[in-house]
Amino acid sequence: MVTAVEEDLTNDRLLIGGHILPCVSPVGLGARRMRHDRAMATHAAENRPVGRSDEARARILQSAVRVLRARGFDSTRIADVARDAGVSSGLVIYHFQTRELVLSAALRYAEEQFLQQIESALDGVEGAGARLKLFLERTFHLEDSDDLPPSWVLWPAMWEQALRSPEVRRDREELDRRLRNVIADVVRHGQAAGTFADVDPDLFARMLSAMTDGLAISVVLEDPTLPADEAIALCLRLCDAELGPGWV
To answer: What is the pLDDT of residue 52?
Structure first.
């Protein structure tokens, strides 16, 4: 935890580490707040414990994911993330510079955690059919990890930000590509074992991932007509039609 940075906005002063620094050329409260945030970030950088930077960054990202789930992208503030992480706003600014960057990084972090959990779970399962079924179950029934909400509840936020941010759009494309590769690899494994029909693995992966994306909207919104189990059943029907009756 970095030393607290105190401010006196009325008298245009900052108290940092016991030293009072004047704020020159004030232009209203907003300008003083910006100077304050920059000073906090500088102080956090200068006083952070050696070797703890990565740990603090991960804690901030985990907090950002939790706050995003509760408040949504537009209503989440740096102060909210800092409070949940138990750090100063200055430390958040030091690691991520802006609110948009920390929240975009949180979306990437959540999706990366999802992919790692999926890949780890599939590694321990024998048989392509069982692996594909497990993939679908984990996609719609992913349990909280490290006190974090399931990744897919943040997918709509990532889609929305991808419309506005080229960086988030590239991240979404890369994460989607990796997810499709997981599906395609399972299909190739099943074909090599003679249990899956001779379909184009990449084309099937695109169909199944598009289907899970579409169904996830209803699941995230808790549509009573389409619970998670029903979403899985619909995906299994696609697998039956494309991979043959003996795929599982």
So the answer is: 63
